[in-house]
């Protein structure tokens, strides 16, 4: 019977990052402050397991009811991301946070304004490293660990109290304690390289090409969350693979998982036609120091999929259309070009506009602004 219900009513979830079918239902019939659900699966479940369900993350907080055929447990939605800092090594954790303490008085509750919270985390190698007096931020408020409880298998519970803000070292905006004590400030950016509009054919897939940068340098294996505004028209998985479900359009948003304000959005249109719809992006450094050179590469897409049988023509001008141009194209090979910035003082703080035009359809163009900076 469980197999039947899993096939007919089961939903795809990820349990500790492993995709499988599970039956999910609300844990209570009435509306509650906390989002609790009952999960049943044919595979083993354990207290402390992390469950990804409908773009939300849950922590199995109960003991697991297990028989020969299935496992059942109660899970609560993780309502906070917490960043803990170990001498410059910052790790993020999904957590269930509530206004309770480790008091022996049954049912005693202390409100957040009074400064005490209870934090429940998965018990793993990283969380085992949490120590007393370790600080973290939540909703731009600093907290300090005052108690650690390991009595629940699979879960670590932290008793925490409000702490004072350290204006010299704490990154209050991004909720990271002691961040500037060990590292420099970061400026993150995220860009979907297929442009603002792309097309996917009905019942076919398209992989989004996403670039994340930190202080202008491309990040290696960034953790990105993808969300569709209408999964019934366009679906997307957490690897950025888009599928056309029904004719129409929907927006796909990519965001840095642990910096959710850093995001990029593309409109996906589901089509049946075989007509070519080209777009171009230019990849390269947005700043160039006077007298120096750097290369830029164009990527050409058809319905959002990169193609390699098309070419572009390059042109360069000053943003204010003044003359002479404060830079030059010194080399052009295929769909790449090398730009050299002028060396005169008049080039400083000027902006060049590099334009790529599709040879087969000159109406398809894209521009990239290049800011010229002082060499010293």
Walk me through the topology.
Elements: H1 2-9, E1 11-15, E2 18-26, E3 36-41, E4 50-53, E5 56-60, E6 65-66, E7 71-77, E8 80-86, E9 89-98, E10 116-122, E11 135-138, E12 141-149, E13 155-162, H2 179-182, E14 188-192, E15 197-201, E16 205-207, E17 210-214, E18 217-218, E19 224-228, E20 234-236, E21 241-244, E22 248-256, E23 259-271, E24 278-283, E25 287-289, E26 293-302, E27 305-307, E28 312-318, E29 327-333, E30 336-341, E31 351-358, E32 365-373
Parallel strand pairs: 15-23, 25-32
Antiparallel strand pairs: 1-2, 1-4, 2-3, 3-7, 4-5, 5-7, 6-7, 8-9, 9-10, 10-13, 11-12, 12-13, 14-17, 16-21, 17-18, 19-22, 20-21, 22-23, 24-26, 26-27, 26-30, 28-31, 29-30, 31-32
Question: Would you summarize the structure shown here?
Answer:
With 376 residues, this protein is mainly beta.
Descriptive account of the structure:
The protein has 376 residues and is mainly beta. It has 4 domains: 2-77, no CATH class; 81-182, Thrombin, subunit H (Beta Barrel); 188-271, Immunoglobulin-like, CATH 2.60.40; 279-373, Immunoglobulins (Immunoglobulin-like, Sandwich), CATH 2.60.40. Helices cover 3% and strands 52% of the residues. The chain contains 2 helices and 32 strands. The chain has helices spanning 2-9, 179-182, and strands spanning 11-15, 18-26, 36-41, 50-53, 56-60, 65-66, 71-77, 80-86, 89-98, 116-122, 135-138, 141-149, 155-162, 188-192, 197-201, 205-207, 210-214, 217-218, 224-228, 234-236, 241-244, 248-256, 259-271, 278-283, 287-289, 293-302, 305-307, 312-318, 327-333, 336-341, 351-358, 365-373. It is flat and about 75 Å long. 24% of the residues are buried. Mean pLDDT is 88; it is low at 101-113.
């Amino acid at each position: 019977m469980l197999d039947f219900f899993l096939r007919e009513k089961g939903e795809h979830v990820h349990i500790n990052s492993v995709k499988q079918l599970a039956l999910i239902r609300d844990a209570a019939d009435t509306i509650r402050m906390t989002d609790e659900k009952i999960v049943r699966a044919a595979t083993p479940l354990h207290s402390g397991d992390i469950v990804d369900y409908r773009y939300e993350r849950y922590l199995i907080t109960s003991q697991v009811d297990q028989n020969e055929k299935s496992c059942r447990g109660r899970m609560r939605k993780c309502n906070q991301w917490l960043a803990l800092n170990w001498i410059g090594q910052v790790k993020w954790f999904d957590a269930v946070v509530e206004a309770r303490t480790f008091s022996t008085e049954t049912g005693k509750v202390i409100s957040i304004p009074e400064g005490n919270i209870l934090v429940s985390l998965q018990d793993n190698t990283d969380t085992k490293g949490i120590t007393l007096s370790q600080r973290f931020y939540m909703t731009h408020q600093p907290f300090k660990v005052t108690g650690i409880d390991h009595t629940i298998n699979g879960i670590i519970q932290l008793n925490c109290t409000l702490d004072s803000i350290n204006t010299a070292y704490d990154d209050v905006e991004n909720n990271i304690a002691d961040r500037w004590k060990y590292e420099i400030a970061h400026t993150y950016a995220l860009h979907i390289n297929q442009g603002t509009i792309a097309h996917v054919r009905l019942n076919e897939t398209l992989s989004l090409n996403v670039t994340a940068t930190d202080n202008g340098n491309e990040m290696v294996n960034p953790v990105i969350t993808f969300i569709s505004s209408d999964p019934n028209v366009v679906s997307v998985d957490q690897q950025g693979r888009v599928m056309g479900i029904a004719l129409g359009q929907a927006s796909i948003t990519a965001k840095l998982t642990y910096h959710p304000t850093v995001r990029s959005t593309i409109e996906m249109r589901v089509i049946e036609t075989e007509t070519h719809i080209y777009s171009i992006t230019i990849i390269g450094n947005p700043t160039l120091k006077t007298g120096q050179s750097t290369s830029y590469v164009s990527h050409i897409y058809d319905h959002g999929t990169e193609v390699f049988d098309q070419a572009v023509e390059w042109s360069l001008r000053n943003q204010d259309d003044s003359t002479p141009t404060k830079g030059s194209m010194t080399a052009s090979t295929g769909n790449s070009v090398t730009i050299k910035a002028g060396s005169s003082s008049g080039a400083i703080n000027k902006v060049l506009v590099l334009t790529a035009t599709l040879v087969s359809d000159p109406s398809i163009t894209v521009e990239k602004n290049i800011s010229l900076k002082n060499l010293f």
